[in-house]
Amino acid sequence: MYKLNRIDSGVCAADGFYADGIHAGLKANDALDMAFIYSDTLCEIASTFTTNKMAAAPIKHFKKKGDFKTNFLVINSRNANAMTGSKGVSDIDEILSSIEIEGLVNPVMSSTGVIGVRIPKEKIIAGTTKFDITKREPVNASKAIMTTDSFSKTIAFEVVLEDGSKFHIGAMAKGAGMINPAMATMLCFITTDADVSKKKMQKILDKTVKTTFNAASVDGDTSTNDTVMLFANKKSGVYNKEAFKEALHEIMLFLAKEMVRDGEGATKLVTYNVTGAKNDKEAEKVAKALSDSLLVKTALYGEDPNWGRIASTVGASGVTCKEETLKVSFNDLCVYDKGEIFFNKEMEVEAAAIMKLPAFTISCDLGVGKGCFTAYGCDLGYEYVKINADYRT
Amino acid sequence: MYKLNRIDSGVCAADGFYADGIHAGLKANDALDMAFIYSDTLCEIASTFTTNKMAAAPIKHFKKKGDFKTNFLVINSRNANAMTGSKGVSDIDEILSSIEIEGLVNPVMSSTGVIGVRIPKEKIIAGTTKFDITKREPVNASKAIMTTDSFSKTIAFEVVLEDGSKFHIGAMAKGAGMINPAMATMLCFITTDADVSKKKMQKILDKTVKTTFNAASVDGDTSTNDTVMLFANKKSGVYNKEAFKEALHEIMLFLAKEMVRDGEGATKLVTYNVTGAKNDKEAEKVAKALSDSLLVKTALYGEDPNWGRIASTVGASGVTCKEETLKVSFNDLCVYDKGEIFFNKEMEVEAAAIMKLPAFTISCDLGVGKGCFTAYGCDLGYEYVKINADYRT
């Protein structure tokens, strides 16, 4: 048995971790635009990156290093350092070797912002001189990595095992479109003092990302810069697999939902519960088709309980299904059941009331097997168009 | 050699074909809401239907009949007769057997409109009493099948062969979202007096649909009711394969582009020319990813020449590609070439001017093979959200 206690200190929750955000002049108006995470003990890193073939320079730089330990991560916003070719990678080498902080080992870098513009090296190198690695300002760090985000996203747990021993795990993330290649990549940095090996945590991370970040969608796109990094400095000397797994899942699911809730222009967080599919893979296909469908997303925004769009999207997803076995519900209100049309004015009022909630669940039981998957999405309204049509200008 | 002369008479261009639209009380304000196509000679039919697993009742009804000839098609708007189960199919039987017009053989039906509501049989049967099969009003017929369309869509050709012999082919279509399951399915009806066999025309239709309707996207969805039917009554006694192929391709490409141009809220028609892909299939994947990407579509609406979003979408599509071989152009203006970043303020002005055009081309050469595909898409603006969020209420 173990207990997860939610605590406040984000990426500084774990022993030995320090972080802060500063203004380097990338964003206007003194807004924080660069952050660091420092550990006073070397860390092993588990990581997962975008599947986009145009992966940004920081990702290529990280992967090129192979197996290594580090104690320092620097992050900038406003420029993604993507589509910048080999120059983008050598820019990172130059930046990292110019940081005048003693004792850094294999520093790494992460970026988010505009694609296709060389990174402003001088400003960023000058920015690193403002870093004070004795600072513990996790909220500043999380603000510095924001782009189109309307709020910063952090979470941390103290994990207490049965014998009273403890470890900590904390995180920060940014992202408001699953991608907005102009601005809003998804980044997540997690720190822990749990005594976990790289191999173990990589395995747990890979599994957890599937049901959390990979199940969340704002606009169905995959950025050039998407990154999750998990830093473990082992300082607590404590580890319990089940507790670690649960804490990591809670953290990543919370942050994934926070991103969808903060989806560009989104007004609602919708959970898509797909059950009764031929297998889990087909359930995932349906859940993601629903969370990505423009027609479903605009109906959500219009608070229109148009179950016909849901059914049609299920049918268009290409999985095994038929109208005679499909069941559709909004929260606990069943609106269509196995070929029976019974949706009337009264039910429409009831369903419309559910759709006015800031968060609700749409369930589809396909009735053909035991496969299930849960995805998270949001509506699409005028603000999304505004943010994405008007950015850069 | 042969010549295609564009003529005006839509689905009545071919000898022996009659059509009209009437008001049956399905739409408000006396708007035309039912249409027929009649041929005074029996027709063979080639057809292609939605891949949506929730295919609507008219499609199930048609497929169930197997091989048959017909001389009559009835079409209604405002109700898709979809998700209506076996009752939806028997409703069609009842409607068709109630039509009091002499000499009808195997009449068929097509529907578009709201999903998940039983079709109003009485109104529709009463509507059929207003049909006059001696009428040739192709524009009325094309107006009657409109839903969210802002203009009606017809086209016809007289095809003159070298020896002076002629045949005709004409069509009407509706569709303004590739799907809006609430309203805007894509339907296309083509009539011809060419002396072509069912087998031949089915083969040509299957091939042509791939590069025309299946290459056009407003919102990336596939309706429950999507239908293309090609009726041939052979009255001209004339046929030439190449001429027929070209005329059919011209007709279907024109109507596909008209649908995209009429895309809900669209202000531009964009042609995506993808070349240099590993194979044609990968080129198609990229072209469709671009035409469906929310981020690309909103950038188009904002007239923002954000080539980074194009590159990122290519990378996210999962095909073989890399930034070192990619080339991106807006019309003839190359904005990114094989790893070189040279996009500057001047080019931005030039590119933005191209994006203000009502129609332009975005070309992506992947530089890894010889595969190519052309797709057609539109932008996504506030009007799309308005149409799709506010419908039904």
Essential attributes:
homodimer, 393 residues, alpha+beta, L-amino peptidase D-ALA esterase/amidase, Ubiquitin-like (UB roll), 2 domains, 9-stranded mixed beta sheet, 5-stranded mixed beta sheet, 14 strands, 31% helix
Largest interface, per-chain counts?
Answer: A-B, 70 and 70 residues
> CATH superfamily membership of the largest domain in chain A, which one?
L-amino peptidase D-ALA esterase/amidase
Overall form of chain A: globular
Oligomer: homodimer
| CATH fold descriptor of the largest domain in chain A | L-amino peptidase D-ALA esterase/amidase
Distance between the termini of chain A: 54 Å
How many structural domains in the coordinates of chain A? 2
Helix content of chain A: 25-40%
* Computed structural class of chain A: alpha+beta
Q: Just name the CATH architecture of the largest domain in chain A.
A: 4-Layer Sandwich
Helix count of chain A equals: 11
CATH class of the largest domain in chain A: Alpha Beta
Order of helices and strands of chain A: EEEHEHEHHEEEHEHEHHHEEHEEH
> Could you tell me the number of beta strands of chain A?
14
Which residue ranges of chain A are poorly predicted, with pLDDT under 50 across at least 5 consecutive positions?
A: 178-183
Strand content of chain A: 25-35%
Taking all Cα atoms into account, the compactness measure Rg of chain A is: 22 Å
